[in-house]
Amino acid sequence: MPVGQGIWPAFWMLPTDRVYGDWPRSGELDIMEYLGHEPFTTHGTLHFGDPWPNNASVTGSFVNQGKGLNEGFHDYVLEWKENSIKWFVDGYLYNEKKPSDLSGKNWPFNQRFHFLLNMAVGGGWPGNPDGSTVFPQNYQIDYIRVYDLVDQPYIVGAQKVNQGEAGKEYKIENLPTNATTAWTVPEGATITTSSDKSIRVTFGTSSGAVKALVTTPCGTTTLEIAVKAEGALAPSITLEDFDTPGKITRKSSTGVFSDNAPNPGKSSINDSDLCGKYARSSGDQYDVLVYTMSDITDASQFTSGEKKLYVDIHTNAPIGSTILFQLENSNTALANNYPTGRHSRYQATTKKQNEWERIVIPYLDRPDQSVPNGSVNQLIILFAPNSFTNHTYYFDNFQIYARGVSTGVIEDKLNRAINIHPVPTQDELTFTVDGYKMNNLEIFNAIGNLVLKKGNIQSERVTLQVGDLPAGQYSARITTTNQLTTTRKFLKI
Ligand SMILES: [Ca+2]
After folding, report:
1. I want to staple 480 with a disulfide (CB 3.0 to 4.6 A). Which of 107, 348, 436, 473 is the partner?
2. What is the distance in A from the centroid of ligand 1 to the CA of 379?
3. 188 in a domain, yes or no?
4. How many whole angstroms from 249 Cα to the centroid of ligand 1?
5. 178 and 283 belong to one structural domain
6. Number of folded domains in the chain?
7. Separation of 298 CA from ligand 1 center, angstroms?
8. Is 28 a residue of the active site?
9. CA of 319 relative to ligand 1 center, distance in Å
10. Residue 405: pLDDT band by 50, 70, 90 thresholds?
11. Rounded to the nearest whole angstrom, what is the distance from the C-alpha of residue 399 to the centroid of ligand 1?
């Protein structure tokens, strides 16, 4: 794959006979679409429905863990049956659609289609190239093959694991009975049980590929999953605990709020003195509590799961009550223009009543894709949205968790002081750290190996020559003279 802002290669299909009429009534079938500024991700899409603006689409996306799809060749496979379409990358199933997924619209895909291959530059989806885009770019295709359908083997298993996690199963579906399999796992991982059909793996600290080399009398095929071994989530920033000054500021609320309520039932989960108390307004279907905030500088870390929101809750609402968090841009999100300005939503349900529980708020969706990851400045909490209930919610210890970080407040301050440019880079990379002196700078490749190091820098600014590094994603670990450490990612092209 090529790489860079505004580059948009695709492998797709259009209807040959247009049995149901013009686009999109007769369908469009996108086997592979990829945006050059997101080199880890590929998309498989069906277009259908009525003429624009009432056209519709359903998409599944695949994120290759730890390694850009611009590195090396990958197999993009569409398995197409009557009333069933599946998308694979390297033998990994990431998307499947059936007529029931089209919201009652006609399924136009049981007809003849033909291939199109192209690489667009610019356009509505990726936006235009900018000063960082390097030309020429190459979209290289080794082969296009059409097979009569025999259900092909594919690999199933987790793309993300925790470092040290044990017993993770990887297995092959549709394995031919006469096949043998040779398995390989990332460095530091061990296979604890193994057969031709499946393995169980205990991971070390390294990310890498789980591969199955499947051999039959007809030949050999490699199925693989790039697996990211992540550090454990740990508290990074406390946004509000009501006993000490908070890092978020309440702007408004529909219900009645108290920010110095006595703890209604101290327990091992929360034995602090004070907490927030919120009496939901029964007259408001969408009761909202609004905070302004400045501690989320890259909201994509929350949609990816690299960071998570945690909160302690104590409520008289029934078990199973919904709590919804929205990250927003206050300049564009107005009361009456949902989903505009709503970057992302996170939702949890309660599992206890009248006692404290610690809740992680998992990512739900991204209502407005156009909100930049760096523009979130508002947090909305909706207790029991879409209801007319009037329960009381005590909450406390509202925290951001990050992976493998224990001194998060310091790291966050340091993080905001760092500037890296240009990103992506081709030849050299300049680091400036406003207000700190750097001591060491270490560059790690996508699988965690140290590839470049500069020590004893003793300066706010340093330039590294990176022209000799292969293209890909790297992490830069910056250590200051006062022993603060943080890590930043960058892309080498
Ligand atoms: Ca507290």
Report:
1. 436
2. 19
3. yes
4. 16
5. no
6. 4
7. 27
8. yes
9. 22
10. very low
11. 12
- Listed residues: CB within 5 A of ion ligand 1: 241-243, 272, 274-275, 396
Query: CA distances (Å), 359 to each of 244, 347, 402, in order?
Result: 21, 10, 15
Peptide bond into 51 cis (omega under 30): no
Q: Which of 33, 230, 328, 357 is flagged as catalytic?
A: 33
CA geometry: angle 407, 411, 417, nearest 5 deg:
160
In this structure, are 380 and 283 located in the same domain? yes
Structure tokens at 390: 């009037």
Which one is catalytic: 28, 230, 240, 411? 28
Q: For residue 38, what are the contacts with CB-CB under 8 A and spacing of at least 6?
A: none
Look at residues 345, 377, 403 and tell me which one is the last residue of a structural domain. Answer: 403
Q: Is there a catalytic annotation at residue 173?
A: no
Is the pLDDT assigned to residue 198 strictly greater than 60? Answer: yes
User: Can you say whether the dihedral through the CA atoms of 36, 38, 40, 44 is positive or negative?
Assistant: negative
Same domain flag for 176 and 249: no
Question: Using 50, 70 and 90 to split pLDDT, how confident is the model at 410?
Answer: very low
What's the gap between Cα 207 and its chain centre? 16
Identify whether 278 is part of a domain: yes
Q: Which domain holds residue 345?
A: 233-403
Residues 454, 339, single domain; the answer is no
- Whichever domain contains 417, its CATH number is 2.60.40.3080
pLDDT per residue over 339-379, tens digit each? 999 999 999 999 999 999 999 999 999 999 889 999 999 99
In a domain, 374, yes or no: yes
User: 254 CA to middle of ligand 1, Å?
Assistant: 22
Does some domain include residue 2? no
Name the pTM for this structure.
Answer: 0.54
**Rounded (10°) CA dihedral 194, 195, 196, 197:** -100
Residue 140, C-beta contacts closer than 8 angstroms, at least 6 positions apart: 73
Distance in Å, CA 154 to ligand 1 centroid = 49
Domain end point (choices 354, 382, 403) = 403
Task: Find the CATH number of the domain harbouring 192.
Answer: 2.60.40.10
